[in-house]
User: Fold these one by one.
Assistant:
Number 1:
Amino acid sequence: MTILIAGGGIGGLTLALSLHERGIPCTVFEAAQEVRSLGVGINTLPHAIRELAALGLLPALDACAIRTRELRYLNRFGQGIWTEARGTHAGHDVPQFSIHRGHLHTMLWDAVRKRLGDAALITGALLTGFSQTIDSVTAHFADGRTATGTALVGADGIHSVIRRTLHPDDGGLRWNGIQMWRGAVDWPAYEGGDVMAIAGDMAEKLVLYPIAAGTRPDTRLTNWVICVRQGDGSSAPPRREDWSRPGRLAELLPHVRRFRLPFIDVEALVRATPEFFEYPMCDRDPLPWWTLGRVTLLGDAAHPMYPVGSNGASQAILDARCLAALLDGTAVPDALVAYDAERRPKTAAIVTSNRMGGPERVVDVVSERAPDGFTRLEDVIAREELAAIAGGYAAMAGFAVTPVSASGATATAR
Ligand SMILES: Cc1cc2nc3c(=O)[nH]c(=O)nc-3n(C[C@H](O)[C@H](O)[C@H](O)COP(=O)(O)OP(=O)(O)OC[C@H]3O[C@@H](n4cnc5c(N)ncnc54)[C@H](O)[C@@H]3O)c2cc1C
């Protein structure tokens, strides 16, 4: 039994490690010619970190990431709306990591190479299609190569070829009208060097978090994202979604200047960033099924979601672990059906919730009611309402520690 994995991204590589752990042979086919450290910051939540820890990767994560201590929601003037402890500080047995996507990717790639051997990772392999019989599936590549296995997993990202083949009538990418600019730069540590901050509203929002040690003990590689509403979601994005498309400073600066946070000079941070990227906030409608015979989908190929609530990479990791467990001891078609039944409804709920703003809706609600700031937060919103939004998301996305208590704006166990 050999599992063919199309796409050596976060999800595909986690699947390879998880199958190997169970003694199930697999091969990863990656379109890129070489692995480069691409992207900027992402967050990985405790439920996904627990799975990577089970693969023995906690020390490697600690070597290149930041254990996030706290998440703060603020308005654009820096007034606090909601604060919650994260990871081990919230009572989880494992941390939440803020990490450079390229560091996470390289770490997983190296682990696969070390554990499975070079032959398990085939680069320059752009999958173009597949064919299957009752007993096997054959993947077809752009250079004419083919590979045959017992299952084919489409972990080929947001522009998945396998998804398009399975669902030719899929409605395509949906842009919600928000453009994101993303960058990371070495910067003086703020608030202890392990705090994530989300400020503003859904029209203009800043997401800030350190993702690695800096060049000096008092600096951190600091990730920033500025989200700006540019459309109402009824049109296509101005430029095609490409994780590596450079952004333009002149376009971004007017938005940056609207943020006034007491602990960081956002404009100076952005100006100091040598290169940054633009990316439209896109997802796709949840699918009615992922599995057809010996073929299924995983990660962004299955359920691309808006990057609110820090769930994209985490859910890809959870997919991979679930699929590997089901493939261990169950015949392939049945295992893929069971995986689809287990993971599809859960991820569809997150896609849908993220369209409503996810937990970040706390800043939307407050800014809507108090656009010029507030004197007393409790005059704007009840603590119970804030707790219901932020805590409800954690429960739905599977990373709540304990039931939410509405006892205070500083919750500790979520
Ligand atoms: C270059 C890059 C940069 C990114 N940067 C960020 C970021 O800064 N912030 C963020 O939140 N998310 C980023 N992402 C997306 C993020 O990695 C995913 O949302 C999440 O981790 C889910 O992982 P995934 O494995 O499903 O998809 P991905 O991590 O996107 O991996 C998909 C993989 O499939 C490969 N692939 C695509 N088509 C084919 C094909 N036809 N045949 C074979 N291989 C194929 C891709 O090259 C890629 O390696 C980035 C993705 C990429 C590819």
Note: Residues 196 and 209 are 4 Å apart (CA to CA).
Number 2:
Amino acid sequence: MDADVVVAGGGLAGAATAIALRTRGLSVIVCDKASFPREKACGEGLLPHGLELLQELGIGDVVDDCGGRPFSGILYHCQGVIARGDFEGGQHGRGLRRRELDAAVRARAAARGVQLVQGNVSAVDVDDTGASLRLSDGQMLRGRFVVGADGPRSVIRHGLGLDGGAPTSGRYALRQHFRLRVGAAVPDRVEVHVGDGHELYVTPVADDVVGVAALCEKRVMGAGEGKPADRLWSLIARCVPLAQRLEGCAPDGAALTCGPLRVKSRGVWRGRCVLVGDAAGYVDAITGEGMSLALKTAMLAADAIADVVAGGSLSRCFERYRQRRMQAFRDHAILTLGLVELARHPVFAKRTIARLARDPALFTRLLAVNNGTRPLLSLGLGDLAKLALGSSMARA
Ligand SMILES: Cc1cc2nc3c(=O)[nH]c(=O)nc-3n(C[C@H](O)[C@H](O)[C@H](O)COP(=O)(O)OP(=O)(O)OC[C@H]3O[C@@H](n4cnc5c(N)ncnc54)[C@H](O)[C@@H]3O)c2cc1C
């Protein structure tokens, strides 16, 4: 089976890349091992920037097919201290169940003529004129280009020799949906409850359903016992206000687990293959921008491939993709690494949250950096000093 481009992995990044390539007139096959709709461990909060990227892709109304709930910002809670921050200019993000969102984006891809194939990619072979995917049932898919969109454990990244090595301090995740009691208030912001060695994220994903994701250090994950649902509940139980709200709420689907979250890569292209989404590298879910980056890298990679097809030099176009992806990724990566470090020290986290509670405008600027609408440097020395002071005072 042949096409201009073969995409390994048909989650958000893969389906979005396929749509962007079809818009540029290229034929595309997307191969995913899963049968859709499928669940995916995710906090499921799409930032305002992610919603804009869906518009840019020409599928902004796809969220109408998935239901979901808007959220106006983030609420941080640590040991009784609460800070509420809103996105700039009244923007909203949206809580969307990945089961619905990924299936809906794939349906849009199919409607644009993308060929969807189910199969487990086991290897990639690259030569001067293209690349082939080998599936575990013996089938071969051949393209002039291959896109690796097969997530954090990417077979394509591994096959290209681009694995960046095991993370030194991996974090892990658990996630489950809960159906709220009749009349219970649905959060209007994504809530982040910071505990010792873990955070709990509560995202509204329907009028009566929230997703709860726990991000934990290895020691916390390793100390948990029993099934994923029991382990998640044992973390929820440590946060009394949240446990009281969720007590007696029926789980809506199974609890999922995944990790380590950190994915390192030594590069994002080789030969006629490019990596997008989590396959290209991932830091941590703490800042909740992974879906937006998946969409952004999908669009940038499609641009690069279209430029090569139009006669551009392959190495120059793909190198430009690497640089543009790095530009989109860098501020998030710095912010994410900083927050992961802060989360390791709840005492400092509490001080910083107290600072944000006293200065909602600073919180809004921080969210704008995370949303990709302001560069990290726009925070300025004053803002950084306030945040640093907020945490360093805890040492005194
Ligand atoms: C706990 C957690 C919470 C998160 N919270 C948020 C959040 O709130 N907001 C946000 O924006 N982001 C969040 N993220 C990040 C977000 O989930 C990812 O960044 C995003 O899903 C990346 O999309 P992707 O398409 O690259 O990868 P995936 O969604 O993982 O898709 C990869 C696809 O490849 C397929 N595949 C894998 N291997 C093969 C193979 N060998 N052959 C064929 N197919 C294959 C899989 O079946 C899958 O469909 C979170 C992540 C985690 C882990």
Note: The pocket of flavin-adenine dinucleotide is lined by residues 8-14, 31-34, 40-46, 120-121, 149-151, 155, 173, 175, 213, 258, 261, 277-279, 285, 288-292, 294 (CB under 6 Å).
